[in-house]
Amino acid sequence: MSSESDDGTLFERLRRALESGRLAHAYVFAGLPSRTHAMAIRLLQLLHCDSGSGRPCGRCPACRNVAAHRHADSLWIEPRNKSRNIDIDTVRSIRGHMARSSMAGRWKSAVFAGADRMQEPAANALLKMLEEPTPDTIFLLLSDNPQALLDTVRSRCQVLRLHGGGGAPDAFSGPMLEILEAGGPGVIGGLLRARRLGALLKPERERIEKEEKAAVNWDLYEGKARERMEEIVDARVAARYKGTLSDALLALERWYHDILLCAAGAGESFFIHGDRAHSVRALAAGLTCGRACHNIRVIEDMKGQVDLNVSESMLFDRAFAVLTARNKES
Ligand SMILES: [Zn+2]
Q1: Is the alpha carbon torsion for 134, 135, 137, 142 positive or negative?
Q2: Ligand 1 centre from 63 Cα, in Å?
Q3: Coil vs helix vs strand at 142
Q4: How far is the CA of 9 from the centre of ligand 1 (A)?
Q5: Strands (E), 59-169
Q6: What distance in angstroms lies between residue 297's CA and the mean position of ligand 1's atoms?
Q7: Are 71 and 44 in contact (CB under 8 A)?
Q8: Termini Cα distance of the chain
Q9: Which of 125, 193, 275, 291 has the most CB within a 10 Å radius?
Q10: Interval 104-148: pLDDT, tens
């Protein structure tokens, strides 16, 4: 998964890809809805704009229609029914749209906002279309929880993660940073941080579970069907929580990246968290560059373990035992 620190850079990359005929026929834009929606609109305006300038003008009828989700060549699909899912009929109806030639003689596109809300049959119907790409068509899957997409669907798409320009990657980074700043040095401090991070994430798991359970009309399922549905809900919860953990680890990595920069002698203008430079400097004091690099590798390692379904408490306990060890071993 490629990671972009700046939405503008990512858009430029897409623009150059279009210019050189290398635009992929399917993308996953992963990130907060505000960002992924804005990026989808910008890319579609680039494809449909009447200005002929090679950049979206934002003012022509095509650009305005794209922004209002009513361009004739561009379908915008969102989870709408009571269960907030995208169903198979909706996906099937797109096949005809994508097969017809473009009204304006340009691109045909379909955007799935909340793409992770696609039920499995719907996702499989989409997969068929992704497997038989037609020229000048593009699929955009927007999701704040890309881990919940079918692997087969995700692997057919180019996945681009949108974090915005240097801001917080998610809602946790504020409370997370407070935990990372406090707690004192040494192994005890590390253990304390690990426990508090675990406690921060636990209610999030419960919230996701509640939401997913409420999205199902349980009256429709009995016996075996109910058991199967319970399994599906469990899988959805696990997938969404994985996304939460990944975001938390990203926030952790950004914090330790500042500590590395500080240990390497960089000034606070280079920090992501320049407003917390005092804490960064305190934590970097006495840390060698080698040790600070090692810390980043520990976090990289943690990211790999998220996919192995290691519990968050084990993940943080193990990692912080290493992260707080100072220079003794190096
Ligand atoms: Zn335009």
Answers
A1: positive
A2: 4
A3: strand
A4: 20
A5: 74-77, 108-113, 137-143, 158-162
A6: 45
A7: yes
A8: 32
A9: 193
A10: 778 999 999 889 888 899 999 999 999 988 888 999 999 877 888
Q: What is the pLDDT of residues 69-79, one digit of tens each?
A: 889 999 998 87
CA of 106 to the centre of ligand 1 (A): 13
Q: Supply the pLDDT for residue 183.
A: 66
pLDDT digits over 187-229, tens only? 788 888 888 988 888 888 888 888 778 877 788 888 988 988 8
C-alpha to C-alpha distance for 161 and 31, rounded to whole angstroms = 6
pTM of the model as a whole: 0.53
Neighbours of ion ligand 1 (CB under 5 A): 49, 51, 57, 60, 63
The CATH homologous superfamily for domain 2-162 is P-loop containing nucleotide triphosphate hydrolases (3.40.50.300)
| Residue ranges of the chain assigned to CATH 3.40.50.300 | 2-162
From ligand 1's centre to the CA of 47, what distance in Å?
9
